[in-house]
Structure formats: C-alpha cells, structure tokens
Amino acid sequence: MSSNSQIIPPSSTEPRKDEKSTSSPQVLPNGGLRAWATVLGAFLVQVCNFGYTSSFGVYQDFYVQEYITNASPSAISWIGSINAFLLISGGVVAGRLYDRGYFYPLSWGGSFLTVFSLFMLSLAKPDHYYQVLLSQGLGAGIGGGLTYVPSVAVTSHYFSTKCYELTLFQFLFVYLIYFYLFLFFYLHTCDNL
C-alpha cells in the first residue's frame, strides 16, 4: 500500500466542513405570535390524539351491537387497546426522529397516516374485524404516535423560562377539558333516565 492511499483522520482542532459554527448560542424568543401559535398547535394535536383514543368506548359499543357482531367484545376491545398502546409507545421512534430534526416529516406523515386510516375505516365492511383493526387500531395508532411526542417537545424550542409551565398547562388543560366534557355528558344522560 502506498503512502498516498492511507486515510488520515481529521485533526480535532480543524473544523469540519459539515459542522455548523457554534460561536453564538441560539436565543429563544420566550413569546411572540409564532411561539404561542406553536403552543396552540401542540395543544390541538394532543386534544385530537387523546380525544380520539379515549372515545373508543363509543366505537366499541357500536361495533359490538351492530357493526362487528361476529367478534367478541374482548376481541373488539383490542382495537382500542392497540391504538392507545401505539399512541404512547410510538414516542420511542418519534422521539429519536424528532431529536434528529425530523419534526415536519413526523407531523405531516403522522397526520396523513391518521387521516388516511380514518378514510380506510369508513370503507371497512361490516363483520370484517381485520379491516377495522388495521385501520383504526394500527394505522390511526401509529399516526397518532408519530405526532404526539413532537407536539409535547416542540414548545421547548420557543420558550426557555416558561417551558415547564407550558408543558404542564398543555397536559392539564387537555385532561380538564375531557373531565368536564365527560361530567357534562354524564349529568346530561342521567337527567334523561
């Protein structure tokens, strides 16, 4: 082997061509229209993901009584369980991709997959359990999992001092909305009994 064919590693003191300069740290705006619009968008993503997943009881009742009568209630509950599992555990993959800078592909891809899965759910035929499982359980679960974790983490890119408070606000507000909606509907249905 000649001396010209050897690969010499770059020196640690020489800057690489592909590295960005880190001479000045990035200043977070801590407010502004774009930052608060991001908080609102993250909140809406969380409301849509958890709202759809937590309302599976309505779907399950419809499936058991009218749509998938040939499957047991236990088998039908697997659809919602898989959806909820993939919503949360999808963060393992989505978190790594988000950290590598793929926020927009995750958001667009997850949103597209969720909407496509719901369209496919509308085409599922009665008593075809596997079609509902694939579209509502797997498709919508993976799509929701791809959008959920980035929606939690994205607010930290716009706020440095209020980051923890905003994340807490997002979670609490989502759960408070659902609590009061469920309470309202429960009280409303009890009045009709």
TrEMBL record:
Q: Which residues cross the membrane?
A: 35-55, 75-95, 102-123, 129-154, 166-187
Q: Which Gene3D superfamilies match?
A: MFS general substrate transporter like domains
Q: Which domain of life is it from?
A: Eukaryota
**Which keywords fit this entry according to its UniProt record?**
Membrane, Transmembrane, Transmembrane helix
Q: Compositional bias (Polar residues) spans?
A: 1-13
Q: Does the keyword Transmembrane apply?
A: yes
| Stretch list, region Disordered | 1-27
Q: What is this protein called?
A: MFS general substrate transporter
Look up and give the organism this protein is from.
Answer: Lentinula detonsa
UniProt lineage? Eukaryota, Fungi, Dikarya, Basidiomycota, Agaricomycotina
